Each structure stands twice: as C-alpha cells, then as structure tokens.
Amino acid sequence: MTETNVIPGIEFLAHEADLLIAEVLSAGGRACVTSSFQAECMVLVHLVTRRAPEIPVLFLDTGYHFQETYAYRDATSASMGLQLVNLVPKQTVAQQEAEFGELYRSAPDQCCGRRKVEPLFGAVGQFDVWFTALRREQSPTRANLKADDDFALPGGKHVRKVSPLAAWTAKDVWSYMKRHEIPALPLYERGFSSIGCEPCTALPFDPDNPRSGRWGGQKVECGIHIASK
Question: Which residues are part of the catalytic machinery?
Fold first, then answer.
C-alpha cells in the first residue's frame, strides 16, 4: 500500500476519533487522559490536547520505568506543553522492596496493584471522563473494547471511559505518528513493541502478540483496565 493510500485512511480515522473526543468534551465534566508515552498514547494525547490543551495527562510513575521512558516523558511533555501529572505509589521502590522483596518477581499482581492500580484509580476517581489509548488489536483481553463505555471504580464511582483509538491497528498508529512528525520512544528502535516497567518488559517472543514480552508471560494485564465488580 502506497503512502498516498495510507494517509487518507489515517486522516479519516483521526477525524472519527476527533469527533468522539469533541462530543465527549462538549458533554462536560472533568476529563483526564492517561499516557504511558507509548506510540498510541502519543497519538491520543496529540488528538485530545488539540481540543483541550489544559487537560491533565496522568502518568503512572512506578519507579521501575526505563530511563529512556523518563527522558522521553520529560522531553515530550516540555515540547508539547503537556499538563503532566505524575502519579506515585504510597511506597517508594526502596520501601516496598525492603518490606516485600521484589514483588515483580514473586507476586506481579500485587506489585501492579500497589504501583499502578491503586494510584491510578485514586486519581481517576477525581474525574468524570477518562480518555485511554486502548486498542482492540492489542490483545485478546481487549478484543471487545468499547470506544465509549461506563467504568466502575472501587468504591462505586463510575467514570466515562473513552478509547478513541479502539479500532486502530498498529499500522494506523505509526502512520499517524509519521504523518504528524511525532517522535517515538527510542525503545521501539530496540525491538520492543509494548513497553512498561523495565523488570517486566522484554522483547516480544510472539510476533503476532505485541504484548507477549510483558510480565514474562505470567499475565497480560496490569489491572488498571479491569472494572470493579
């Protein structure tokens, strides 16, 4: 497929995403967008901040990220003028490891719960709308993702969870990045396809599953996208 064929398709997808973003924002309520600064997150942030430049961009600072991720976060936030909000766990890495050891090895669900789920849900609970960069193609657990959904948080609060890129493919993401000259996290150049905390991120072992390098195959989700029952 030539670039002249790709770009109009990308612009159509971007237009559809923008329409959803505009509709959601016009409905009112406090909105936030979460970003891990991966490629799809940068596409979403680019789209959302064109409509809402002052929207809080929530980043889960687990303390375990690659140094490249931190450097990219800081440089990109500065160049795009993002209203970055770093969410930190109750315990530092040193405090947690002193009490529990390396939970990412012994109990990855607990580690994600402490360093991702708790701080994110605590922050998202202050908002009415939560924009995410989730895509159906990313994993089987996301195959039925709704672009606009109701999400229940612990404690009973519900937020409007909006995923404007739900139908996008990885090709779509990278075409948009190229089209709008958005620099990507350098770790992609080393072969990573899904990037999280450094101890739990490896090169993908399944070329058909971009998230196969996460958590050593022990699980596929950290928990932040699983609604309370």
Answer: 222
